[in-house]
Amino acid sequence: MTEYVEVQTAAGRVRGRWRPTTGGRGAARSAAFLGIPFAEPPIGELRFQAPVPKAPWAGVLDALEFAATAQRGDPGVTLIPEPSVEGDSTLNVNVFTPDHEAAGLPVLVWIHGGGYFAGSPASPWYDGRNFNRDGVVTVSISYRLGFDGFGWIEDAPSNRGVRDWLLALEWVQQNIGAFGGDPGRVTIAGQSAGGGAVLTLLGMETAQHLFHGVYAISGALGDVSAPRAEAFGRALAAAAGVAPTVAGLSTLAEDRVLALQKKATQLGPSSMTTMIDEGLPLGPAIDGDLLPRPTRESLRAGVGADKPLVIGAADDEFTMAFSGSAAKALRWVPQAALLNRLGLRKSIRAEYLAANADVARLGKARLAGRVLTDRMFRSAVPRIAADRGDAPTWLYRFSWPSGHFGFAEHCLDVPFFFDCLDGPSMEPLAGPNPPQELADDVHGAAVAFIATGDPGWTSHDGDAGVVRVYDRPTREVSDAYASVRALL
């Protein structure tokens, strides 16, 4: 078998490499094309502008190693291995295909998470080889992060990171046929901020032609209000002593902006409730232009109603925030004070505590983690299902407890989705010997959805319906989000 493979894209020829798949079924090999630029490097005069499509190149571009990432250093945000790669050309796609000479294969486009300020498409967990094994062409994309991608600047285009998503998806539409994929069968998927990203795209009228299905894992919607985005941008510029303009902010080195951004987004006791209620200050902003209204309003108005959606969350996404020394400190905090700090209204506390009695019995740290998880992630699942009404929507819960943490924490579902339990850095997240049969269930449903638009269980009716619960065993449960009903 020839090690290298070449494909002609609209901008030029690229060279990738064949590798074996795993699992002993389906396609036996996968070709990886890494770091294909879809835009010019966002530096110099292009730094705070909308992305510019990559100019054609001569000869053959080696796409054998991951290209530069927007993430710098190790922010320490998640337990997913997401390496940073130095360099300026940070707007790239990675394409994985089982057969570049095929025609009409379904396509998965993955948008990484990281709170809109971190994360990397170069994770070994995002390798598409096992989706390739099952007949799915896979693409992971990069986008500008933090202030460069989402910060308000007086005279710059808004939502530059969102515009990066759009241009990357345009690249997929134009080029994926050369890799064996069907531009008419594109599913966008992501986790955490990536899950929020695909929901944002689902609610954008101008993005509807770019994809045909959505898979949102633990989606954290941005939807930063215009006043909040502007206030953050002005405050960061003031802290730097420059005007909140392209000219002013362009005088700041990248590491200076990152330091200011980190200081401005640090969470403390006084900012916890604001973060829970309003989300992160950097993310897709309701700018009246690219995003004219909040995502949920768009969904209620019927935007994206023709697109099938799978949406769900893990049971205890952010319980890790209250582990270790934080758990010990909570022993001295009265439960009422703790719930007040987490924004759980007195009028619903009795109902909520009754519905979550099993967790409350495990102590205040576990209860605090569940409240934070429910307010930030799990309550959004039935809300968005209700927003979509009769639109095709499937709900799931990821409930299998990590063999390391003892609960289903943030990011735990990602390696099951990609069926990469043999990947690196798995034990700190999942513990020893995570169940392959559960990966078969999660990954198999994802493949079915990408290929057919139906993951294999009963769709939701917009109010209360069947939910797939991923545990051992996987099962289907009626109204499996009943424990968050008090929050709705």
Write a brief caption for the model.
The protein is of the alpha/beta class and 488 residues long.
Could you characterize the architecture of this molecule?
It is globular and about 65 Å long. Helices cover 33% and strands 16% of the residues. The termini are far apart. Strands 1, 2, 3, 4, 5, 6, 7, 8, 9, 10, 11, 12 and 13 form a 13-stranded mixed β-sheet that branches. It is an alpha/beta fold. The protein is built from 18 helices and 13 strands.
Annotate the secondary structure layout.
Layout: E1 4-8, E2 13-20, E3 29-37, E4 60-62, E5 92-97, E6 105-111, H1 129-133, E7 137-141, H2 146-150, H3 160-175, E8 181-191, H4 193-202, E9 213-217, H5 226-240, H6 246-249, H7 254-265, H8 269-278, H9 295-300, E10 309-314, H10 325-330, H11 335-341, H12 346-355, H13 357-360, H14 364-378, H15 380-388, E11 393-398, H16 414-418, H17 427-430, H18 436-452, E12 466-470, E13 475-478
Parallel strand pairs: 2-4, 6-7, 6-8, 8-9, 9-10, 10-11, 11-12
Antiparallel strand pairs: 1-2, 2-3, 3-5, 5-7, 12-13
Major sheet, described briefly?
13 strands, mixed
Indicate the multimeric state: single chain
How many β-strand runs? Answer: 13
> What is the SS-derived class?
alpha/beta
Shape: globular
**Which percent range fits the helix content?**
25-40%
As residue ranges, the low-confidence spans are none
* Measured distance between first and last alpha carbons: 56 Å
Strand content: 15-25%
- The overall pLDDT average reads 93
Total DSSP helices: 18
Rg over CA atoms: 22 Å
